[in-house]
Design brief:
Elements lengths: L3 H28 L4 E5 L5 E5 L5 H28 L10 H4 L10 E2 L4 E2 L18 H9 L10 H15 L6 E13 L4 E9 L4 E2 L10 E14 L12 H23 L2
Antiparallel strand pairs: 1-2, 2-7, 3-4, 5-6, 5-8
Helix pairs in contact: 1-2, 1-6, 2-5, 2-6
């Protein structure tokens, strides 16, 4: 019989397959013609216009990836409680309430409500995760999406937001986006290169970057379309390729979350 950790690894293997499918869809987008146009007005201002939406397959594939992430977390949480390392009497209905918490904001108490100091007390997780060890509580509390700064909590925040969108049965907002590469040649023979991304439908295409010294005498521009999530997942990640965001999530599962639960589940 597969352990919960092994079962979670199988789910992550499915994520890898789906990421390959996403890359295949995106290759088709990059290679296709007439996906966008750059319009120039009488004053030389250039504006990006996309002629297509994000491929519909990406909505389905992304939803399946998020489901596998969330399901893996819940399976690991269930196994953690079931192992009952403290040997306590578990609540009668614990199986129905058990799930991995993904709390976007710090829990509150009292009236008027006040935020608990971080780290929040175990009682905030007790209903979902009865009987877990102090070490398990410390890890799970430490990766909650309400935390700030660098850490695995950032990818769980993204997964939580996308899972919430999927739960409400409407598609993720996936937006066609363009990156601009400029290869510059200066009169003195020096060359330079600039890459900028995040250009959405209706965005103004900027003039070439200005460099100190010799201005460029020749600029070669190339454009590459890609797909991003919208600001639902937070500013910053919304400028990255959707497949890159999901790939980072997968890597954090493989290097942080799975090893932690492998240690915690006894």
């Amino acid at each position: 019989m597969l352990s919960a950790v092994d079962f979670a690894k199988l789910k992550l293997a499915r994520v890898s397959v789906h990421l390959g499918e996403i890359n295949g869809v995106l290759r088709g987008l990059v290679e296709a013609k007439d996906t966008y146009e750059i319009l120039r007005d009488a004053n030389g201002k250039e504006t990006l216009h996309f002629l297509v939406d994000a491929p519909s397959d990406l909505h389905i594939i992304s939803g399946e990836i998020v489901y596998q992430f969330k399901s893996a977390l819940d399976h690991l949480a269930f196994a953690l409680v079931q192992s009952n390392p403290r040997g306590v009497k578990l609540p009668k209905e614990w199986e129905g309430a058990c799930q991995f918490p993904l709390l976007p904001t710090v829990p509150t108490y009292g009236s008027p409500p006040l935020e608990y100091p971080v780290p929040v007390p175990y009682q905030c997780f007790k209903k979902r995760l009865p009987g877990i060890s102090e070490e398990a509580y410390a890890f799970i509390e430490g990766v909650q999406p309400y935390h700030s700064g660098p850490g695995v909590h950032n990818i769980l925040r993204i997964i939580g937001k996308l899972a919430n969108v999927d739960k409400h049965k409407y598609p993720y907002a996936l937006l066609p986006t363009l990156s601009l590469r400029e290869d510059l040649t200066h009169s003195n023979g020096m060359t330079g290169m600039s890459v900028r991304g995040g250009f959405k439908h209706g965005a103004e295409i900027p003039l070439p970057d200005e460099f100190p010294g010799e201005p460029p005498v020749h600029t070669k521009r190339s454009f590459t379309p890609y797909i991003t999530f919208d600001k639902t997942i937070g500013e910053g990640p919304d400028t990255l390729g959707a497949e890159d965001v999901l790939q980072v999530c997968l890597e954090q599962f493989e290097t942080v979350i799975i090893p932690a639960f492998d240690r915690l589940i006894q």
